[in-house]
Amino acid sequence: MRDQEYGFSRSANAHRKPPNPATTEQWERFAHLVRLGWDLRILGVRTSLVLPVTGQPILEIHSAAGTLARITVIRRYHGWVFTWRPWWACLWRRSEWVPAEADNAADIVMAEVSA
Fold first, then answer.
1. What is the pTM of this model?
2. How many helices (H) and strands (E) does the chain have?
3. How sure is the predictor about 1, in pLDDT bands with cuts at 50, 70 and 90?
4. Exposed end of the chain (fewer CB within 10 Å): N or C?
5. Residue 94: exposed, middle, or buried by beta-carbon count in 10 A (0-12, 13-18, 19+)?
6. Cβ-based neighbour number of residue 47 at 10 Å
Protein backbone atom coordinates (compact mmCIF):
# COMPACT_ATOMS: atom_id res chain seq x y z
CA MET A 1 0.00 0.00 0.00
CA ARG A 2 2.80 2.45 0.89
CA ASP A 3 4.48 1.83 -2.43
CA GLN A 4 1.43 3.16 -4.22
CA GLU A 5 1.25 6.19 -1.91
CA TYR A 6 4.80 7.21 -2.77
CA GLY A 7 4.58 6.47 -6.49
CA PHE A 8 6.58 3.23 -6.49
CA SER A 9 3.96 1.21 -8.33
CA ARG A 10 4.91 -1.01 -11.24
CA SER A 11 2.81 1.07 -13.59
CA ALA A 12 5.10 4.05 -12.93
CA ASN A 13 7.95 2.17 -14.60
CA ALA A 14 5.83 1.55 -17.69
CA HIS A 15 6.06 5.26 -18.58
CA ARG A 16 9.85 5.43 -18.36
CA LYS A 17 11.78 6.29 -21.48
CA PRO A 18 14.11 3.59 -22.82
CA PRO A 19 17.77 4.06 -21.89
CA ASN A 20 19.87 6.26 -24.13
CA PRO A 21 22.25 4.04 -26.17
CA ALA A 22 25.10 6.54 -25.73
CA THR A 23 24.65 6.49 -21.95
CA THR A 24 24.47 2.70 -21.92
CA GLU A 25 27.72 2.53 -23.90
CA GLN A 26 29.41 4.93 -21.46
CA TRP A 27 28.34 2.75 -18.52
CA GLU A 28 29.67 -0.37 -20.25
CA ARG A 29 32.98 1.40 -20.94
CA PHE A 30 33.19 2.53 -17.31
CA ALA A 31 32.35 -0.95 -15.97
CA HIS A 32 35.04 -2.63 -18.08
CA LEU A 33 37.70 -0.15 -16.93
CA VAL A 34 36.71 -0.49 -13.27
CA ARG A 35 36.88 -4.29 -13.51
CA LEU A 36 40.32 -4.12 -15.14
CA GLY A 37 41.51 -1.64 -12.52
CA TRP A 38 40.34 -3.95 -9.75
CA ASP A 39 42.03 -6.96 -11.36
CA LEU A 40 45.27 -4.99 -11.69
CA ARG A 41 44.99 -3.92 -8.04
CA ILE A 42 44.83 -7.59 -7.06
CA LEU A 43 48.09 -8.05 -8.97
CA GLY A 44 49.65 -5.26 -6.87
CA VAL A 45 49.54 -2.58 -9.56
CA ARG A 46 48.59 1.02 -8.77
CA THR A 47 45.91 2.40 -11.09
CA SER A 48 43.80 5.53 -11.43
CA LEU A 49 40.51 5.87 -13.27
CA VAL A 50 40.37 9.22 -15.06
CA LEU A 51 36.90 10.55 -15.87
CA PRO A 52 37.35 13.65 -18.02
CA VAL A 53 34.50 16.11 -18.46
CA THR A 54 34.67 15.53 -22.21
CA GLY A 55 36.00 12.42 -23.88
CA GLN A 56 36.26 8.83 -22.80
CA PRO A 57 37.35 7.43 -19.43
CA ILE A 58 40.94 6.20 -19.16
CA LEU A 59 42.59 3.79 -16.75
CA GLU A 60 46.13 4.88 -15.94
CA ILE A 61 48.66 2.29 -14.79
CA HIS A 62 51.34 3.78 -12.54
CA SER A 63 54.87 2.66 -11.80
CA ALA A 64 57.33 4.08 -9.29
CA ALA A 65 58.71 6.34 -12.04
CA GLY A 66 55.30 7.71 -13.11
CA THR A 67 52.52 6.78 -15.50
CA LEU A 68 53.35 3.57 -17.30
CA ALA A 69 50.34 3.32 -19.64
CA ARG A 70 46.90 4.68 -20.36
CA ILE A 71 44.29 2.03 -21.09
CA THR A 72 41.12 2.76 -23.02
CA VAL A 73 38.29 0.44 -23.97
CA ILE A 74 36.71 0.54 -27.42
CA ARG A 75 33.90 -1.36 -29.05
CA ARG A 76 34.89 -3.45 -32.05
CA TYR A 77 32.76 -5.62 -34.29
CA HIS A 78 33.20 -8.66 -32.00
CA GLY A 79 32.92 -6.88 -28.64
CA TRP A 80 34.83 -4.63 -26.26
CA VAL A 81 38.65 -4.53 -26.24
CA PHE A 82 41.22 -2.85 -24.00
CA THR A 83 43.94 -0.98 -25.83
CA TRP A 84 47.02 0.91 -24.66
CA ARG A 85 47.94 2.45 -28.01
CA PRO A 86 46.14 5.07 -30.08
CA TRP A 87 43.09 3.56 -31.76
CA TRP A 88 44.60 3.77 -35.24
CA ALA A 89 47.64 1.73 -34.15
CA CYS A 90 45.66 -1.06 -32.50
CA LEU A 91 43.15 -2.00 -35.14
CA TRP A 92 45.16 -4.80 -36.74
CA ARG A 93 48.05 -5.49 -34.38
CA ARG A 94 47.08 -8.26 -31.96
CA SER A 95 49.78 -7.35 -29.43
CA GLU A 96 48.23 -3.95 -28.75
CA TRP A 97 44.75 -4.94 -27.60
CA VAL A 98 43.04 -7.65 -25.57
CA PRO A 99 39.35 -8.63 -25.40
CA ALA A 100 37.70 -7.02 -22.38
CA GLU A 101 35.89 -10.25 -21.53
CA ALA A 102 39.12 -12.27 -21.25
CA ASP A 103 39.61 -13.80 -17.80
CA ASN A 104 43.33 -12.96 -17.89
CA ALA A 105 43.03 -9.45 -19.38
CA ALA A 106 44.95 -7.88 -16.47
CA ASP A 107 47.83 -10.33 -16.89
CA ILE A 108 48.02 -9.69 -20.63
CA VAL A 109 47.86 -5.91 -20.22
CA MET A 110 50.67 -5.92 -17.63
CA ALA A 111 52.86 -8.20 -19.73
CA GLU A 112 52.46 -5.97 -22.79
CA VAL A 113 52.81 -2.54 -21.18
CA SER A 114 55.77 -3.62 -19.04
CA ALA A 115 57.73 -4.94 -22.04
1. 0.73
2. 5, 5
3. very low
4. N
5. exposed
6. 21
